[in-house]
Amino acid sequence: MNLHDGVAPALATALEERGYTSLTPVQASVLEADADGKDLLVSAQTGSGKTVAFGLAIAPELLAGQDELTPTQEPIALVVAPTRELALQVSKELGWLYAKAKARIATCVGGMDMRKERRNLAMGTHIVVGTPGRLRDHIERGSFDTSNLRTVVLDEADEMLDMGFREDLEFILGSAPVERRTLMFSATVPKPIANLAKQYQKDAVRISTIAEREQHKDIEYRALQVAPNDRENAIINVLRFYEAQNAMIFAGTRETVKHLAARLGNRGFSVVALSGELSQSERNHALQAMRSGRARVCVATDVAARGIDLPNLDLVIHADLPTNSDTFLHRSGRTGRAGRKGVCTLIVPHTRRRTAIRLLTGAKVKADWSPAPTADEIILKDRERLFASEVLTEAPNEDEVPMIAELLEKFSPEAIAAAFLRKAQGDMPAPEELLATSVEAPEERKPRTKFENGVWFRLNVGRKHNADPRWLLPMICRAGHISKNDIGSIRIFDADSRFELPEHLADKFAETVKVHGTGEKSITITRIEGNPERGNSGGRPPRKNFRGERSGGGFRKGPRGEGREGREGGREGREFRGKRDGGGKRGGDRDRRGPKGDN
User: Fold this and answer.
1) Hey, do 9-208 and 446-527 end up sharing a CATH topology, with the first three levels equal?
2) For residue 329, how many other CB atoms are within 10 A of its CB?
3) Could you please report the per-residue DSSP string of 293-329?
């Protein structure tokens, strides 16, 4: 559909000036004859042009056949959005779309000056854009008169219900005139949305521009498998490898956002944070810093980033895996917008690999699995960028020629090149050294060899430290100058881990580790004398002995039920299991559980 089919002249002119040559599928769908004047229930994916779509859809009610809007006291249209950022963004989009029609737009969002909002409403406005809680406040206080509303739009309706705004939405819709047009836009239409539509819409036309979910072709998806304690280092290396103009990092909690922002800032990245605890002024400053180029990295929670559209956002990093596939797609959809290519990376600790696979499968996204970029790969990438830099290829201008001649007269070309190289490298944070990792699927791993007369060694990390063979193995190899084929069985307990070496390598390995250490400050390797399964420091004993005799008053003297002695032993054993350790957790057979997560 071209811009003039069903679009009001004032809006068509605004679209042309904005660079639109055609409408997106969702924008064209709301202008079809079947949708004219009807209530709409629309589902469309992120970045599909929904704001302009409902801006076009409500034009008949707003303009009533006129090219320009006449002054009005009570608002004619209302748009409800889940977050402050999205409401302000919607207001900005409708502002340019209805500029030629001379529409007055007021915003009512939490965190802003309510007195100023009341004054704007009192001066007369055509369109009100706001968040549910603040809109309800204005209605209850009498500063927002809804009696003249002709149309109401719920943007991101599914998100508003997920955030607990059902009561506020029902209040707002209940206060609006019965004879109105109601448009609901939602990424998905779960049962709560369908029920809300059934209650507050009349014979709504169902529009969906989401066919069978398919992978976003403008986004390159990468799953980077890392050691659990390398997660933050991997994020640093991803930022350095891609050097994106703008990057967004998603974290699961406010505390993680603050921690990551502080860590990245200390490492030399220009970074801002977005979380729900920030004031509206702080949020605005953060977003403006990203848009102006003063900051290049934004660390945010899901809620804070809802609906944000940053220009030139070329990289999305999932520092914490999202809780579901819809959240994953929404996060990822911040990049690859308006035909621009983008990269989406998931930082996947070994312990969360299965979760990541389920997440990608649910989203119907195929990602390339690989280790995180290494320091050597980043240095090579920096070299490529340096030689392709416009600074080197651009010809000098007339004002620069005298200074260039003077520099060449006083310094050798080698000295000038070295100064340029140092300056270029000095502006970039140094990459991190990561533990070597393997991304082969678990079913492809072969059982490790058990050596005859093998010698066992102990590592002071176990399941509670997220120990995993895929990052322990490379570290052991580096520490003892051996290959992975020299290592036999690896056993991981709660508090420590054990591995086996052939007898002829044991002494040399022990001496090498004693001299050079493990390369990790917090990890030590010691030789075990005797049975490696004894002295487990809280680790899980072998299953074959677990039901046998117990020490420390909890021994069973014989099979259950064989006389008084056996019964007392059983009672003592139960009492022993009931005791709690200093952390408040039950000891004993509770340790049979595996680590939290996928296992």
Assistant:
1) no
2) 22
3) TS--EEEE-TTTTTT---TTEEEEEESS--SSHHHHH
Q: pLDDT of 301-335, one tens digit each?
A: 887 666 677 778 899 999 999 888 878 888 888 88
pLDDT band per the 50, 70, 90 thresholds, residue 578: very low
Q: What is the residue extent of each domain of the chain?
A: 9-208, 214-445, 446-527, 543-592
Rounded alpha-carbon distances, angstroms, from residue 172 to 203, 364, 562: 20, 37, 73
Position 474 pLDDT exceeds 70: yes
Q: 579 to each of 159, 554, 573, how far by Cα in Å?
A: 45, 12, 10
Q: What is the pLDDT, as a whole number, of residue 539?
A: 41
Tokens of 495: 């508090």
pTM: 0.56
CATH code of domain 214-445: 3.40.50.300
CA distance 131 to 168: 10
Q: Which residue has the higher pLDDT, 12 or 437?
A: 12
The four Cα atoms 435, 439, 444, 446 give a dihedral, to 10 degrees, of: 0
pLDDT digits over 162-200, tens only? 778 999 999 999 999 999 999 999 877 778 888 888 899
CA angle in degrees (0–180, nearest 5) for 424-426-429? 110
Average the pLDDT over 1-17 and give the result: 80
Residue 575 contacts residue 554 (beta carbons within 8 Å): yes
- CATH code for the part of the protein at 9-208: 3.40.50.300
C-alpha of 249 from chain center = 6
What pLDDT is attached to residue 126? 95
Q: How far is Cα 558 from Cα 202, in angstroms, rounded to an integer? A: 75
3-state secondary structure of 198: helix
CB 299 within 8 A of CB 271: yes
Q: Which of 32, 38, 31, 33 is nearest to 12 (CA)?
A: 31
Q: What is the DSSP code string of 7-74?
A: --HHHHHHHHHTT--S--HHHHHTTSGGGTTS-EEEE--TTS-HHHHHHHHTHHHHHTT-SSPPP-SS
Q: What is the pLDDT of residue 574?
A: 37
HSE-CB for 236 with a 13 A CA cutoff: 23
Looking at residue 356, the DSSP 8-state letter turns out to be: H
DSSP letters for 468-527:
-HHHHHHHHHHHHT--GGG---EEE-SS-EEEEE-HHHHHHHHHHHHHH--SSTT--EEE
The total number of residues written for the chain in this structure = 599
Buried b (16+ CB within 10 A) or exposed e, 289-310: bbeeeebbbbbbbbbbbbbbbb
From CA 99, how far away is CA 96, in angstroms rounded? 5
Q: Does domain 446-527 have CATH number 3.30.70.330?
A: yes
Backbone torsion region of residue 31, taken as left when φ is above 0, otherwise alpha when ψ lies between -120 and 50, otherwise beta = alpha
**DSSP 8-class letter at 228:** G
What is the per-residue pLDDT across 502-532, written as a single tens digit (0 to 9) for each?
A: 988 899 999 988 888 887 878 899 999 766 6
Residue corresponding to tokens 């080197």: 392
